Amino acid sequence: MRGKKVAIIGAGISGLAVAPILAKKGFEVEVYEKNNQPGGRAMVLEDSGFKFDMGPSWYMMPEIFDQWFAKLGRKREDYFSISKLNPNYRLFFPDDEKITITTDWDELENIFEKYEPGSGVRLRKYLDESEEKYNVAVDKYLSMNFTSLWQLLDFDLLRKAVVWKMWRSWNEHVCKSFKNAKLQKVLLWPAVFLGGSPKNLPSLYSLMSHVDLQQGVFYPDRGFQSLVQAMYEVGTEEGVNYSFNSEVQKIHVKNGKAVSLVVNDSIKEVDLVIGSADYQHIEEHLLPNTEKQFINWDQRVLGPHTFCIYLGISKQLHNLTHHNYYFQEDEEWDDHFSAIFGKKQWPKNPSVYICCPSKTDNQVAPKGQENIFMLIPVASGLNDTNEEREKLYNYSINILEKVTGDSIQDHVVFKKIISHRDHIELYNAFQGNSLGLAQTLLQTGPFRLKMRHPNISNLFYTGHYTQPGTGTPICVRSGEIVAEEVMKYYE
In this protein, which residues make up the domain named Amine oxidase (predicted)? Predict the structure, then answer.
């Protein structure tokens, strides 16, 4: 492969994952990134002594990251350390009750028994099945490029699909065993990691309960920027060349092959292209009209947009752990998901995620102050007005004051809101979406967008629109899979 020029569009997680693997195989790898730093949605924001992870904040499935480093002959711990959070997170409810979640089985069982006597035994059965699903998914689904339904014709997989009633929604699966609304939320909230709602995701994804409640939640020292910088460093060690502030404007195609890119108005010849940027942006804005796949984007179920608020608070706050969620009542919980996937409108009384990494890491905020990152999932494609931003900001501050019991407004020393139009500008994100395609049943496995362009033989895709799905560790796997596909292409 020596001398073959591979151009990667975008230095997001999947682009960072594939680049050093191919460089190690002898390819000349160039990564073009439109922003001034690597990471894509996992970029870092620094201001006024605060350091914010702009995107992912949950370090889960740590073995996936460790395996990536091992594949490249390295150890993750030589680049950064991780620590297991205890507690995992805290859940707040409108009736002022709160539930603190850990991976300690006795504590979990006591929580479930408190709210629903007899549910501890059912939780054990539920988590055993979740673990089995997880192991099957990691072994089978998360290591394959599904190009055909025939790849699903595995007797053992089909048998398990029947046993697990995979056609049922995750919501149905949970509600069949647990009747208490608070406990249902404990088990169903990770749907947000998959870009879907509990009602439109298949029950396969109850595997996330194993990740959440049994594996636990970790934190990389100094935040996700440590992972991004480590992946970037491994790439440079393997000879990858990264060009920042370099926006790919066009892909030139000749005789069914990509032959060059236009980058900042300059022509760059290529032997192969990997799109780690937004799939829709590449298809609709970089390719000639004659080469587009003509995907009906209106029929695709996009994951939500993440409305994000970054705050520097000039005092310490009470009641918060590193990760926190404020969950609304049942009707408003349902209305929130309906606003995202049904009505496609701004939510009225949504649930709110509150991250306070300064509870764990004293390097992300000045001494005696707090680093706060709040996130509300909303529909992609909304009209992102300043009025809507301010309305949701004020709502979020009220929630933060409610759960902490502290006054907040007069102590905000740094504030930044990131919403749809920022994601479009920063990431060329289709409709400002944050998570690519939702992991619905008809957007799982062979039903996701193709990893290799059907008409352009040397154009490949990686990331959260294609195989195997959405989420940071899954995008690492996507980078590994596309590297294997490129190697097959040159066999």
Answer: 13-487
- pLDDT tens track for 38-72: 999 999 999 999 999 999 999 999 999 999 999 99
DSSP string, 128-176: HHHHHHHHHHHHTGGG-----GGGG--HHHHHHHHHTTTTSBHHHHHHH
Domain ranges of the chain: 5-39+222-299+437-489, 105-213
User: How far are the Cα atoms of 99, 181, 184, 351, 491 from residue 330, in angstroms, in the given order?
Assistant: 16, 7, 10, 11, 55
Say which residues have a Cβ less than 8 Å from residue 42's Cβ, sequence separation at least 6: 12, 13, 53, 54, 55, 56, 224, 225, 227, 228, 472
Residue given tokens 């396969």 in the structure block: 204
In angstroms, the CA 463 to CA 276 distance is 6
Report d(CA 448, CA 482) in Å as an integer.
14
Contact 86, 102 (CB under 8 A): yes
**Helix ranges, 146-284 (H):** 155-163, 170-177, 181-188, 207-210, 224-237, 279-281
Q: What does the pLDDT read at residue 489?
A: 96
Q: Is the pTM of this model over 0.90?
A: yes
User: For the residues 274-302, what does the mean pLDDT come to?
Assistant: 95
How large is the average pLDDT for residues 288-304?
Answer: 93
Task: Read off the amino acid at residue 128.
Answer: D
Domain 5-39+222-299+437-489 has what CATH class? alpha beta
User: Kind and range of the H or E element at 84?
Assistant: strand 82-84
- Digit-coded pLDDT (tens) for 254-268: 999 999 999 999 999
